[in-house]
Every structure is written in C-alpha cells, then in structure tokens.
User: What shape does this take?
Amino acid sequence: MPDSPFEYAPAPESRDIANLKPAYRPFINGEFVDGAGEPLKSINPATEEVLAEVSTASKSDVDTAVKAARRAYEKSWGKMPGAERAKYIFRLARLIQERARELAVLESLDNGKPIKESRDSDIPTAAAHFFYHAGWADKLDYAGYGPDPRPLGVAGQVIPWNFPLLMLAWKIAPALATGNTVVLKPAETTPLTALVFAEICQQAELPPGVVNILPGAGDIGAELVGHPDVNKIAFTGSTEVGKLIQRTVAGTPKKLTLELGGKAANVVFDDAPLDQAVEGIVNGIFFNQGHVCCAGSRLLVQESIVDEVLAKLRYRVSTLRIGDPLDKNTDIGAINSREQLTKIQELVDSGDTEGAQRWTSPCPVPERGFFFAPTVFSDVQQSMRIAREEIFGPVLSVLTFRTPEEAVTKANNTPYGLSAGIWTEKGSRILWMANQLRAGVVWANTFNRFDPAAPFGGYQESGFGREGGRTGLEAYLDV
Amino acid sequence: MSDRLSVTKTYKLYIGGKFPRSESGRSYPVSDAKGKFLANAAHASRKDVRDAVVAARKAFGGWSGATAYNRGQVLFRVAEVLEGRRDQFVSEVSACEGVPAKKAESLVDTAIDRWVWYAGWTDKIATVLGAANPVAGPYFSFTVPEPTGVVGVLAPQSSSLLGLVSVLAPVLATGSTAVVVSSAERPLPAITLSEVLATSDVPGGVANILTGRAAELGSWLASHGDVNALDPTGAAEADRAELAKAAAGTVKRVLSVPAEEPDWTAQPDIKRLRRYLEAKTVWHPLGV
Assistant: This one.
C-alpha cells in the first residue's frame, strides 16, 4: 500500500441495529413455522461466528407452501383489483425504507458485504423495485401485452447469496404486481434478510400465502422447481444450475426465466478518460467482492495504454480497504463462504499455472474470516481459465487489443452475454460498440448501474428473460 | 395425349444460398395426398444440419447488421416473388395437402399476405418493444431489441406452406437467421420456397431449408452449440421434452408451442417476433 496521507479510524456500524435473533423460521401461509428440514447455522463470513440458527424447509414444507400460494392466488391475490394489489406493494416498499438501516446491517452481517454497499445500494434499490412495480399493478393493460394480461399463478423463485434482499425484490416485486403468488427460496448462506422481509409482509398485512419464504439448500430449490403445481420458475444463480433447472422444466408447461453467470468484457480505448475508467474498472470488478454476475471481470485495454492503465489501476486498487464489513470505511468485505473462497483460490492458482502475471494488492487482510485480497492478472490469454470461467471473486483478468474490431471479437468470445463496458470519449464509437457487443446490458463510461425501470438480463448462456422495465413484466404474464 | 415427356426436377436442400444434395446421399419418396409418387426429396443428415448452422452463423452478422428498412425491403421482395410463383404453390399445396384448388389458393394467398405482414414489422418492432428507461439518476438509459442469433425451426408437419411461412418469416424479420427442417411428408412447397428465397435478394445462409425428418434432425439442432433458439412446432409432441432437455445444454430459447398445430389462417400477434429478440439495455452518464 502506498504511503497514504489519510488514515482512517475505524467507524463501525452498530450491529445491534440488525435486531439479530437467535433463531429464524420459514414463512408459510402468513405464519412463521418450524421447518421439517435440517436446521442450518447462518454464519458471519467476516468472523466465522454463528449469527443465528435457521430452521429449514423439507420437501413436505415445499408442498405446503405451494398449496398456500395456490390458495392465496385463487382466493384473493389473483382476482384482487390491480389498484388494491398496488397499495400492498407500496406498503412493502415503504416498510423496507423504514427498516432500511436494520436490513442493511443484517445484510452485511449475513453476507459479508461492506455496509456502505448494503446501505447505499442493495437496500434502497430493493425498495425502489417494490415502488416501481407497485405502480404497474393497476396499469398492466398499458404494458404492451394486450388488454387485461393474465398472471401465471404460483411462482417458484430461487435466488443467490450475492445480493440476498435485492434479488428477492427483483423476483417478488414483479411477481406480485402482475398478480402471481410466490414461494421463494433464499440462498443457504444468506437467508436472514428474506425472513425479515417475511415480517415486513406481516406488517403490510399481506394476505396469507401470497408470499412464502423457505430457507434451505439446493435440494429444496430442486423440489420447488420440480413441483407440479408451480406455474413459473425464476432463477438467478450459476449457469451450471440454470442448465439443470432448464432440463427439469423441459417438457412441462412451466414458464422459465434464468439469470445466470457472466464474464463481462470491460473495454478501454486509448482515448478514454483514464481516471474515470480506472474508477469504473475498480467498481466493475471489486464491487461486492466481485460476487456479481455482471462484474467486469475481463478488462480489455487498448495495447498502447496498457502500461499506463495497469499502473493507475494497481495504485488505485492498493488504496482499497479490505476488512470488517460493518466498518463504514471498508471497500471490500468478506467472501461469502469458505466454499466460495476455495473456488476463487483454485481459479487464481490456475492463472498462475497457465502463465498469467499475478499482482495482489498489498493491503492488510484480516486473519479471521473469509477474505481475498484484490488481485489483477495481466498478460492474460483468451484460452486461460481465468479469461473464460466466472471467478465470482475480486479477481480481474487484463487482456489487450489493437483495433475496435479486435476488441469486439475478444469481448464476444464467450458463451456468456450478460454485460459489457465501454470506455472512450468518442460517442460514435460507443454506439457502434454497443451495437456489436452481444450482451444484455452495456455500460458506457460507467459500470454496474441498476434501476428497476431498466431491463436487465442476458444473451446466450447468461440466461433468458429480463428483470425490470416493461420488458420484465413479460416473465410473469401469460403472454 | 402429348408425346412430349416432361422434364422432372431433382429436389435438393437449400444451404448457404446453394442447392446441394444431402451429404449423406440419401433421398426419400414424396407422395401426394392420394399416395401417388411426386418426387424424391433429399433426406438431410446431421452433417447437413451442421453445414446449415455454419451457413446461418456466417450470415448472421450481415443480416442482423442490415438496416431494418433494408431487411423489410428484402422480405417484401420475397413476397413479390412468391406472388409470381403463386400457381406453382397452389398446385403443390393442393397436391401434398390434398385440398381442393380453391382452398389451396386461399392458403397460398394467406401465406403471401403473412409474409408481407412480417416484412412490415422489421422497422417497427424496435419502436414497439424498445424503451427509453426513466432511471433514477443522471444517465441516459435505453433498451433496444436485438436478434437472438441462429434459430432452429422444425416447421409444421401439416401446413406445408402457410405454416412454414408463419414460422420462418418472424425469424427473418427480427434479423435472426434460420435453419429449417421442412414438413417431412409435404416438403415440396418448402423446396419451392427456397427457390424463391434464392432469387429474391435474401443473402445466402440467412434461411436454410432442409428436407428430412424432424425426429432425426431435431435433436441435432437442439443440442448444437451454435444454435441460439429452437422452435419445436414440427416435432412430435412425445419428442418435445427431449428436445427441450437437449436445448438446455446451451441455454437455448425454446419456443413454447401448442400441442397440436394451430390454425395458421388466424392472424398472428407479435409473440413469435418477441421470442427471437433479446433486450439490450445501454447506459451512458449525462453531463457537460
């Protein structure tokens, strides 16, 4: 780390705000119930301490929850006027805003992400998703799918651990707005905010069964996906599991949307505003410890400026603070689980073996907990695993190109297609690149922007379907 | 009776703008609805499917990159040439579907009109499905539909022309390219359609038409790593789950289609266009 004129005293957020309880339970038909599955312990990845014991669902609980959702769909939610549904969803949005600080602290405890991100990004955006979709509930006639588009019924939703509450919002808000009821399985390692969201559903007096939350592992997700009385499956997670789900759903009338992995190219031209670009690169790969499916994990730099970019990048990265997620000064928090840390380590080792040049930030790394120092590989070839496989950690691979055409070819040289970045001052080149890149989201001179009004989703093996905007409603309508 | 012997035609595949025989050397007899021999059609093989996918991928950049106006013109040109061949289509549809000439005329007319309808969508679909996103921040964010890529189409088995046009035209209108397996028992209108495509400004490889068996060729299309979407309309219902499973290997978009062949004479909506489009969202900061 360079000698910094700035030294920060620790500024920890109080963990008491999280209202952490010793035990959490599944939420079925409007009630917290004991799940019949094996209880799990949710741990704080920054300290490895047990945060709470969580009762999990069994296969029979999945069935009970689907039945409750079906009843709620038929008896109340599915036939409720859109304007009434809207008010419930507005309530959810407001309650999330009211409890934002509690949710942010809890999210950082459970997930390991820095409090500045959960506080300023995850939780406000989650509330925004409910607010945005609430307004759609009584305007679906105008969504472009013909008059009076119908809901699908019961939606089974499986979400990942990288943005636990935000992914919940991305799934539940549009499902409810369009008149569906929901059974959602949060990730095994991050169930806590979803279960506080269940409390919020109670506070909003949402009719019982409209939202059901079932903590559990992959087997419970598989049970939900395979359940014959579920009409729609929405999944966000790895491409590998996405393919399994697509296979399971094949041949059934279930409607499916998948948000899967990515290996985004972040393309920097020699005329780019370099300081801004470096900020964008850092944000693109180190936001949320790189646990982002649309992370800019492949940096493509025009050859003439690669040394300059690398120098600036290394300097900037070395100033990132890694440590206590609850410290407001922390830039990079904990890796979500030991399992994930092992995966990152394994892929990074492959980078060494295959001959890439590894640079690791010299920043001090906590001794306890799951942490991985920001790492930048240069001299990366397209054939290397670190250029092809999703690492899902704070690891950047730097490749070079000479011409815009070469940049496009290299950027598109992946089975994924979720996102891409472009950095250049030349407007016409931005628009040309944006056309050429085979990716669902293209950020130009910015990165990692999300908004409920802007559709998000992938090309190719990054999945199908969109979340957000008018386009996103299609996933939950029979059209 | 005339003493002139008619010249019979050898029916071939349509791949990359050319008319090859099947690589396998196979052919199969095609009969009319009454069982009378009409022709031997080329019996496409797995290799033909692969060649067609290569051709479709090669053509994708140019076709998807053409202006919507240009694609509309090219597709409208197809309708013009279809119209010129109207009588030939009527007799082929009548023969292979076993319908009276009047009915066949109506089916062919609807097919031509359908092609015109889809041709007109090329430069409207982005307006209808795209958006300027009102995001909460100083960014210009817009969403445009883009073609999904190479589409494998198992054409309807019964409706030899109207059904085929109804499933192929939307693929081409979006800017995607197609590999089509024709109706197995009623392939002649499909072969004639490929002659129309070859002579109407559609770049070679944009549409590839294979005569053969959906049951055999469908699985190669469904599992092919360079096919982005699959329309299983012409597959037997019993085979569709397997096709959809194979398609999962590369996260293909699989069209959800009704169990039975629908009434193709009904006016379609834009559902089929939507299925072959991705939504791309582009962001840029606002500032001075």
